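Hey, resending since the last one bounced:
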Amino acid sequence: MSDDNNTVDSVTEFRSLISLWDNDREPDSLAETLTRLSEIIEKEVNDYYKLDPDPYDGLQPDEQNIEFSGSAWNQLATEIDELFIEKVIDLYILGTDRSSPILPLGIRLLYNLIPTSYGFTFEGDATREAGSLLEKLIAIANEAESGDTKYYVLALLGSSAECPYSNAQYHSVLERLACSSLREMQSFKSKFASELGRSEERPFAHFGAANDDASETSSVRTCKSQSEQCSQSSSRSLPTKTPSGKGQKRSSTGPNGGSRKKARRGSPPPQPPASKCKNAPQESHVGESSNSWVDISPLLTGTYFTSPLTDTMKQRLLLQFLVPLAEYQELLTMFLEEDSLGLVDFYLKINLHKDIRLTFEALRFLSGLLCHRRLAAKFVIDGIPKLLAVARPSVAATAVSMCLYYIACCKDVFERACGQLPHSTLRDMCSYMLWLLECSHETGRYHATMFFTEVFNFRCLLELFDEMDGLRRLINLIATLDTFRSFQTDSPPTGAALPGSQPDLGHQINHVPHARRRSIGSSHDGTETSDSNRQAIKQCCFALKSYFGMHLAIKTDQIRRAARITPLCLPHQGTRAAELTVSTQLKNMLFLLEHAAPKSSWHVVEQFQKQNGLVLLLQICFLAREWRNCAFRAETLKSAVDVIACITAYPKHQDLLSALVPVPHIPDELEEDPTHRLVDKVTGFRIVLNLAEGIAVTEADVQKAALRVIINCVCGAKGVQFSGLYGDEVYWANRHGKQAAYQPSTQHDDTLKKMCTAVRHNNGLQILLSLAVTKVPPQEADLIRTLACVALYGICLDEGVKQIISKMPLFSQSLLEIAMREPPVAADKKLSHDRFCEAGSVLLDKVVGKQNLPFPIASGARTSDELRRAEIVAQTRISWDSKELLCLIHEHLLTSGLHKASKALFEEADLASYHALNRTAPITIVPKPLVSTPRLSVKVREPGEPMEITRLPPATPAYLPLSTPTQRIDFPRHDSTATHQTSPENNPCTTPVAKQRVNSATPEVFSSVKRQSRLGRGAGVAVQSESASAAGSSMAHTPFTPASAIAPTHATWKMPPPSTGRTLNNIVESYLESQHSKCLRPIVFCPPFSLREQHKCPEPLCRKTAPLSIANRLLLRKVYSPHGGMEGKSFSRKFIHSRFRPVATYQDSNLDRDTFFTSVCFSPDRHFFYVGTNKGEVRQHDPTSADFQSPAQTFYCHDSAIATLDMSHDCRMLLTTVSWGSPGGSLWVPAQDEDGISKLMDFEDEIYCEFTKTNQDMVIGTVSERATIYDIGTCRKIRTLYDSKFANDYVMNMATSSYHNDQIILNDGTLWDLRQESPIHKFDKFNANMAGGFHPNCLEIIINCEVWDLRTWNLLQTVPALDQCFKWFNNARDVMYTSAFTSVHEDRSITMSTQIKTVDAIDYQTIATLDVKKKVGDVAIDPKDQYIAVIENGSGFMSESGVCKLYEVGMPREPDQEDEENSDDNEDDDDEDDEDDDENDDEVIFDDILNAFGDQGEEGDGYNSDQSDMYSTTSGSDDMD
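The structure tokens again:
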């Protein structure tokens, strides 16, 4: 009978027995039914074992795995549900007496059913009291007369021991049963040992003997090929178990010798055996036999029969009970006393029991015991060779992987093993785990990968791993997953993408057995990675991180020793583990960046790249972003990025990230056919930068790791000064240590420039600028900002980049300084914020050169204009008249009462001649008697001793007041006030002095004789310092008061020695420099500054500058033609375009609420204007018609809403695009008569179309990031503009041509020339939406709010008013209308704001804002710039109230119009003075202005007054505001 018939018969019989059991429950027939149900299950499980499934996967049905989905057991297991199991428990276990013969049958059936259940537990449910089943099972297990039923019960209790509830409540009972089970297993061991001596030689006995032979353990035997075994097995096909563990289509013979074909739906034809693969691991101890599969299967996959119970099956059931108990610390003493390790050692000898499943259960039990350090240390020396002797391939080999992994987790135990075991054993262990890594079950691969993750810190294991080509096998574990092969087979994975890489993965994948290649990832559905594949990817990333971390430490140690630098503390013996922390790895990367030779290569990275390892890591980073709700997504991404960081620490390998990487295409939600492109190609930098951006993946650890990769590439050795800011606290102290000097290298600098260019091309500037001021996540925000500043510093080494980012708001609007002055984002992250402030200061010094500025960074936010002025001030030479300074000192001495000193200064400096030359007179101070001025007594001190000053009581005045007092000066008050008077005889001349009141907080000591100006606050501060300095210096040299005037005092204090760092010249220079910095327009070359008068640089004024008043400008037109003076044209332009008057409103004439307007355009001849509707109609309106509301013609063009309309210059062609549907756009030829409209060509896939600007013989279509050029004459596609290296992926990309050359195209932020194959230039991306367009002056490109120079590619300026705005230029090309968008809908429709701004296209100043009160749908400008048409929607695009409203430009609103209250908001602030002029109300003057501009129509600056009322439907007043 065929296998398919067996499957059908088993399932059919099972269903019939269930039906019979439901209908007939007589005791006689019931026993037979339960027995037959168990036999069917056991038979199918036994056959299922022959398929070699993963032994750790259980027996649950798996529909996704094509390997086993068609098996008989899988179909049978689906018939078993939870309800059936509950019925068996309630009826035949809980509802049956212990003496009933049905109870053993029910327990046996329950044991067979439990493995098929996903969610069944023994905790109880709503229909059964908790613990009732366990209590009965425990009672049965404790009965001595229970017989074989006890073993079923113990196995069931083993599964319940994993439940915390049952373990806590029945802990003592389980411990007692475990002890009795161990003793019973000891009796079985003795029984087997006694029978071994009497038994005859059995088949395959040599297999067990080989396990006992130590020399044969380390030998490698090669399996014979499947074809050779087939020839040796005569008429039977007896394939050897392949090393893959599963997935191989096999044939086996049944008991009668008939061939059985395994039923698997969609299985491929038989593949060549694994032994034919070159270099494939073919180690096996059982593959040299030509016996039947029936004889060999117990040694490979095991059997499953529970009736009658054999001794081996009883021991398997006992081990299943002990496995979950082995990990408990409370049972350690019992396991030691009962010699559990001895039992395991016995079960590892398969020649004694001939059951590989018994060995597998024993290894599961051993893995639990190895969790105890004491047992692991006792087992490791003698036990590892025995583990390596376990047969492979077999199910037991999978359990060996778990045991060795648990040993590796205990570092001290594994160090003992590495130090005491011979090198040959270590080699065999590495070989065994590498075999498991490539050819075992999924669980075996998983634990083998984790084993290598733990042991890579041991240098001896790392060297063995490299010697046995382990890196290739580890990479193949990932490369053979369907997740990656699905898009690597369609196109070469690297091709010319990565230097040094192979063109295909076939040469690596062919080293893996075909069954292994097909089985891995077989559950992948083609769009999402399965959980098992994700687990494999995660563990491989962990292993690679550990592998490269150790190699990085070794490489750093080698370079340190070669350079005679103190090496790292790596163990000299390779048998000890190296302690590699995160900080150590960062330190090693910094060291390599600084000391690695640019031309040298890293052998490990080269081998890794030959296997396309970097491509796989980047693909993992790309795919893992889509792992939604995956608990280990962040860990996987961080490990992968950390490996990339280690690779990029070597300068030669940094350019690998700039190559293209094939990734699966993720379809857009708006794509109609998402399968049109299965594979995309992006650069590695694009993937890393997307992770750093933190949008798709919000974990801070991933962002920091990605930023470190960018820093490695763009900073290199020049970023070593940031070692303290690199992201770990250990470097905060280390950065102040001694660093080796950076030796510039031309090749290294070229690599850095190449990396900076690659970062720019992948929109890295936008991401880094946003991260420099980010505040999320709060706990890591400061550290992320620090790393972003370091990366920006590296990119700013390129002068072009520095010029660009200096114009960005981060610096031009001082956003970085504001963030630095703010408190830490997280209150407990003060240290991280300090690092950010330091990194930001270094970045500011690099970009704007603040170290040369005359003011500190913390003095306030500085705009770009202030920075420019500060640079001028810094370059200005400050000079002043020294005699003027001496005069001020003379006056200060007089005010201080130092008359002798002032007189000496006056005579020695010859100040009399200075006063005579400048026609000024010296100041005369008339003092008043002292009232209570405190006196100070200075004690003579020794050199180096601080000055000691004693406060004395007021002294008697030494001079008397005059009878004729002059003006007095009030001095600053301290403890008391004092007034001094001086006799006029003490001075050469006397002059009244203006009264001054000096405040102690803000003193103003000096005053001008002529009182022309007063010193500012800055002067006061400077003079106060000067006064304090002069007073302090005069204290020590002034004669003391006579001793008779001295009274005792108790207040003493010590004055520190005077500072010599500041001089009077420095103080005066700082004071004058601060005055110069306040000038609005400072100049470099200034005349000598005056110390008495406030400095002010001259303002540039011109006699011919036009006045602000429109009337005055008109009067001056005859003098200063044509615009009334300089800048008159600009003033008039701003005046005209700040006034808008609504003149007409167009809507559907039939008042059909289902029809509304969506787009509008004017005809170039001004005869008509066209509006598009939501129903695909294009209506032609004649504004001069009496019935202007009714369309002159209606063209039925599309079935969906018209999104845009564009008319050619000759009015012969009309271009339309729609919001959705196909075709996306069409070109029409409208007829001037009643013939309607005819279609010229369609643009199927385009979502936006426009004519070229000059000749209009081509149409540019845009969809996503691609632009297509169509020739109108031939109606054919000319060229598609797209390059993945230069893609910016703007949301609203609208390709457009230049105003002077149709061959120059701007698409997706990249400039193209149709005469060249490659793009001309890619502009840096600083926003996600607006792709930009050309300025009509043909010298600039405006992308969002950035204005770029086409000649130098420099960023000229940023205009915040243009941010996220659509732009329409008028026909004079000197004004643009803008409207900001608010959202983009799923159908690609756009909702804009309710405001329209007019911006001067010359200086980019905002002129006015027109608030239409409704959402703006579209804007069109009259060819003569006299009118604008606006589509106004009530609640956004496609609303039911879309109308077209016409506004007249330059005319004020009428008083009775509904929007009159907001008319003042539309006035420009620059024209506020116009409202005060009565002449502006003159109607004749305004008409004259219009006529004047009409005369200048040739210059493109005016309007034609003959057609001024062409679109007017009502006569409006021309009065001006």
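The chain has 52 helices and 36 strands.

Sorry for the duplicate.
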